[in-house]
Amino acid sequence: MPSSFGRRLKNLRDEAGLSRSGLARLAGVDPSYVIRLEQGKAPNPPINTVARLAKALGMTIDELLGTADEGRSKRNVSARKRAQLVHAIKLNLADAMKALDELLGL
Question: Which of 51, 58, 99, 105 could be joined to 80 by an S-S link, Cβ 3.0–4.6 Å?
């Protein structure tokens, strides 16, 4: 059974439109580790890994852990979308075009 962290990580990864391997690449971890985290088969990650996962998702550690205050999280939505676009550009141009279309509502 997935841990609450694993479920949250999967939901946020899905919202960001990232594959497991895409998130792993951006965070500098092995894709199998992302799978194990999401499935609750790995212990909660160390804070430096949480920080890398949060950065890859374009959010703060508090947002990834679900401890950020709601008002602050809402203000960070556009920053998160910009960060997601930057990450998509890093992955490849096709992903960037898709993210831009979504950002612009096309």
Answer: 58
Element (H, E) at 60: none
Rg (CA), the chain: 13
**CATH of the domain spanning 4-104:** 1.10.260.40
User: E strand or H helix at 41, and its extent?
Assistant: none
Q: Is the pTM of this model over 0.70?
A: no
Convert the pLDDT of each residue in 47-72 to its tens digit. 999 999 999 998 889 989 988 665 55
Q: Where are the domains of the chain?
A: 4-104
Other beta carbons within 10 angstroms of residue 45's beta carbon come to: 17
The tokens for 62 are 């508090």
